[in-house]
Write a structure and sequence with these properties.
This protein is α+β, with helices and mostly antiparallel strands. It has two domains: about 5-115, Rossmann fold, CATH 3.40.50.10330; about 125-285, Tumour Suppressor Smad4 (Sandwich). It has helices spanning about 15-30, 45-55, 65-75, 95-100, 105-115, 145-155, 160-170, 230-235; strands at about 5-10, 35-40, 60-65, 85-90, 120-130, 135, 140-145, 180-185, 185-200, 220-225, 250-255, 260-265, 270, 275-280, 280-295. Strands 5, 6, 7, 8, 9, 10, 11, 12, 13, 14 and 15 form an eleven-stranded antiparallel sheet that branches. Strands 2-1-3-4 form a four-stranded parallel sheet, with helices on both faces. The relative contact order is 0.17.
Length: about 300
């Protein structure tokens, strides 16, 4: 019998989590999974309880919510033998998308966990200038993207991809390019630009394939850097991010490597949609460092 604990974010997906969490827990128990529900009143308390559960020896820690909830659970399981499970009921669910998990049915996602099918994947670790250390699974963003995320996180309407689209349009009116210094392994790029995305996974923002070549198990990080361009050109190019074809534009640079350092004055890094800390930041990939439940073992 699988021994698991589940972290539930009742606000994820504008109520989807609150509605679907009991269904997922019931399905897991029906399938013979021993599930302990970690009830907390804040993200900080949820993380504390998750870390305690992992220290107590649970075999699986399940995140029921969106990418932010998965991000929280990752902080508890990184560097351990505990398997990460995901019940994706958020607005974006890009980490679940990268793992090919069912995103429209909490019970089907629970079945993946109960079936015991797993894959070994990479994750990345950020060291920020203020001493913050944070692991992430999907994408770290700096510059325009992080400002869009900050704006989107304060919006109550609309949901999903539309929220990021409106936040992008709003931020475009006020954002100015900044001077970046990006070091990937032993190569350095110094250029003024709009944004940088460092992808362990391919997408964020509910299906925006900002790092379309990124995969979770290749031991590499994929970078997409948008050099300075006109706002008109940026706005014209923006829709192509949903297909990942933006990387063919001449002002978009792509790089790959296992270690990354990003320097830019006055900028803040976000990862998996969560605020991390100020630049400069150092990022490295942890190859095969995580086992996660997924349809393909």
């Amino acid at each position: 019998m699988l021994n698991a604990a589940i972290v539930i974010n009742p606000t994820s997906g504008k109520g989807r989590s609150l509605k679907n969490a009991p269904l997922a827990v019931a399905r897991l128990r029906e399938r013979g999974v021993q599930v302990r529900v970690l009830e907390a009143g804040s993200a900080e308390e949820s993380l504390r309880l998750a870390r305690e559960a992992v220290a107590d020896g649970v075999e699986a820690l399940i995140a029921c919510g969106g990418d932010g909830t998965v991000h929280l659970a990752l902080q508890a399981v990184q560097g351990t033998d505990t398997t990460l499970g995901i019940i994706p009921v958020g607005t974006g669910d890009d980490i679940a998308r990268s793992l090919d998990l069912p995103r429209d049915d909490a019970c089907k996602a629970a079945d993946v966990i109960a079936d015991g099918r797993t894959r070994t994947v990479d994750y990345a670790v950020i060291h920020a200038a203020d001493g913050t250390e944070r692991a992430f699974l999907a994408v770290m963003s700096v510059g325009f993207d992080s400002e869009v995320t900050e704006r989107a996180n304060t919006m109550t309407w609309p949901t999903g991809t539309s929220r990021y689209l409106l936040a992008t349009i709003a931020e475009l009116g006020v954002y100015k390019p900044v001077d970046f210094r990006i070091t990937v392994d032993d190569k350095t790029l110094t250029e003024q630009g709009m944004m940088l995305a460092v992808g362990n996974g391919a997408s964020y923002g509910g299906g925006m394939y900002v790092c379309p070549s990124a995969v979770l198990d290749d031991g590499q990080l994929d970078l997409t850097f948008l050099a300075r361009t006109s706002k008109f050109t940026f706005l014209k190019t923006f829709p192509s991010v949903f297909k990942g074809t933006h990387v063919t534009r001449p002002f978009v640079h792509t790089l790959r490597g296992a270690t990354v350092r990003v320097e830019a004055a006055g900028q803040t890094a976000y990862a998996d949609g969560e605020r991390v800390g100020p630049l400069p930041v150092d990022v490295h990939v942890v190859p095969g460092g995580l086992r996660a439940f997924a349809p393909v073992g």
